[in-house]
Design brief:
The chain has about 575 residues and is α/β, with parallel strands linked by helices.
Length: about 575
């Protein structure tokens, strides 16, 4: 191969500085002052252990980026000759053997909700009702009487008595402020007496369709509200966040995502949050790619207007699938099951919407070209979702739909192969398994537990997996998910060998589900998810090589640098 003299000169210069002068590692660019989302210069990353996630060529030593995309990747001499030596303004970064991989594409987040929660009372990890009360009391001290106080993240399964809180327990610490606290699952909430009054919930209030107002032995509301139709009776009375508050919370959530190596997310938030994303993108401050889902139940005219307004092609921000809900959550026993719960035979959960109605709506929305996602956790809800997708294909004929079940946590054995047969994507969250395993078998019993969080069975059947976190129901840290899907153990270890160990999958399969699998789920394969020429320069540099450490250490791995579109959006230093 003939090489121009200028190329040889620049090659020598780059090699000299990268190998001898010790070019500064992990040089960071400002994430808030750039007018463009994609820097135009060439950056050459040398002497790394780069995991490409491309099965044909899984490893590389060097990589060059330009205009927000990967221009060259492979051996050092190839990258320098083809890219570094032809650009006199190329920036060279010595990786010093650090592990590099594609950025995580979280297939299921709620960024707006996460931002709002960061401005409210944080109840995650509260080990008792007394600790919850203390955190609320601290918040009350910083509010005027009459001001709403919200919070989220409480988990009664961590408490000694494992009982839901009551309005009386909230009234004891917040007698003069309406209080609304959402469970970690997002599917139940507890309100104090003032909040119930704002929602006009009394002893005579009927249960709304698809929801439950929990009552005591006398028929009085306890404060517990199950599923959105009941929760919204109160939550709809909470004043909206001001635009500056909404923006501040979203920036905090984006910073959290960047710190954890998330370079893309598929989000379900309020339209007002999407408008904040638009503003941030215009200012060059959007630090990850966002595909925004739209609500399944809105009118067709409204959905088409939102799709036209938000667009479907922008590489940084666009609208995507429609999301609907078929049931609740396993922890609150509102997930719709085919048979009663093993630890509470009085209930089989809740179908939050009429499947026949959803079937007709899905056929109409599919005909208009929308991708459809259904939240389904229980085995009955999953069957209903698959039945709807099958009916849609029969009514509208074949096309590349890539419809999705969000969560797919508990599946009947006969429904497992239907995902592959219908090309329905299982969009799952591995960290849910480690959160739920403490009580899941009590809810399900030993037989149904075999079909819970069935990553390996779905993968073996030929189904497509897309992994995420359900942030902020769970931490957005993907390392917790990697640990979960490889070990099926708690973050602190155990049970020995993992819970339902037959459903473990390999680290490579887990990474694919978190990157290229989630890209496929949003029709963006060959654009992101792998480090290949022409794909987006979205990658992360980690403190440890995931392929060389035991799985027990995954949760201790930290992100040193996050790069999106060739731009550094997070640097540890």
């Amino acid at each position: 191969m003939k090489i121009r003299a200028a190329s040889l000169f620049y090659l020598c210069v780059i090699v000299f500085f990268s190998c001898c002068a010790g070019v500064v590692v992990l040089r960071a660019k400002s994430q808030t002052t750039q007018n463009s989302q994609t820097p135009p210069h060439t950056t050459v990353y040398l002497h790394g252990r780069i995991y490409t996630n491309d099965p044909a060529n899984p490893w590389a030593e060097a990589m060059a980026t330009r205009d927000g995309k990967i221009r060259c990747i492979g051996k050092i001499d190839y990258v320098l000759l083809e890219c570094g030596g032809t650009d006199p303004n190329a920036e060279s970064i010595h990786l010093q053997g650090k592990f590099v991989m594609p950025g995580f594409n979280d297939a299921h987040v709620h960024l707006g909700h996460a931002g709002a929660d960061m401005l409210s009372v944080q109840l995650n990890g509260a080990a008792s009702i007394e600790e919850l009360q203390k955190r609320v009391a601290d918040a009350v001290a910083h509010h005027q009487p009459g001001e709403w106080i919200t919070g989220s993240g409480w988990d009664h399964t961590l408490w000694p008595d494992k009982k839901f809180p009551t309005k009386q327990e909230l009234d004891a610490v917040a007698p003069k402020n309406p209080l609304f606290l959402v469970h970690v699952s997002g599917h139940v909430a507890v309100a104090n007496s003032l909040a119930l009054q704002h929602g006009e919930i009394t002893k005579d209030s009927p249960n709304p369709p698809g929801g439950v107002i929990e009552r005591d032995a006398n028929g009085d509301p306890t404060g517990m509200l199950e599923e959105d139709s009941a929760m919204s009776l109160v939550s709809d009375r909470i004043p909206d966040l001001k635009i500056d508050q909404r923006r501040r919370g979203i920036l905090m959530a984006l910073a959290d995502a960047a710190k954890n190596g998330v370079t893309s997310a598929q989000d379900f938030s309020e339209w007002a949050d999407f408008l904040v994303y638009v503003q941030l993108k215009e200012e060059g401050k959007l630090t990850m790619r966002i595909t925004e889902w739209l609500p399944f139940i809105d009118s067709m005219n409204q959905l088409q207007d939102m799709r036209a307004q938000g667009g479907t092609t922008d590489p940084w921000l666009r609208t995507g699938a429609l999301k609907g809900f078929l049931d609740g959550a396993l922890g609150s026993r509102t997930a719709a099951m085919l048979a009663p719960y093993s630890d509470d035979p009085s209930t089989s959960g809740i179908l939050t919407n009429d499947p026949d109605k959803f079937r007709a709506m899905a056929i109409e929305r599919d005909r208009a070209g929308f991708q459809i996602n259904f939240h389904a956790i229980g085995d009955r809800a999953n069957r209903e979702a698959l039945d709807i997708f099958e009916a849609v294909a029969k009514a509208n004929g074949p096309r590349d739909r890539r419809d999705r079940v969000e969560h797919a946590q508990v599946l009947a054995p006969e429904d497992l192969p239907r995902f592959a047969r219908l090309n329905v994507i299982a969009s799952m969250q591995p960290s849910h398994e480690t959160t739920d395993m403490r009580w899941a078998e009590q809810r399900l019993g030993p037989d149904r537990s075999k079909g819970a969080y069935a990553w390996a069975s779905l993968l073996k059947s030929g189904a497509h997996l897309a992994f995420g976190t359900d942030y902020d129901v769970e931490s957005i840290n993907p390392m917790r998910g990697l640990h979960a899907c490889v070990t099926r153990e708690l973050p602190e270890g155990g049970p020995v060998g993992g819970w339902q160990p037959h459903e473990k999958i390999s680290l490579q399969d887990c990474i694919r589900a978190y990157t290229s699998g989630s890209a496929y789920a949003q029709f963006e394969e060959r654009k992101k998810g792998e480090l290949k020429v022409g794909e987006f320069a979205d990658f992360i540099i980690l403190s440890d090589d995931l392929t060389k450490i035991p799985p027990s250490q995954y949760t201790k791995v930290t992100v040193l640098q996050t790069v999106v579109g060739g731009r550094t959006v997070y640097s540890e230093n």
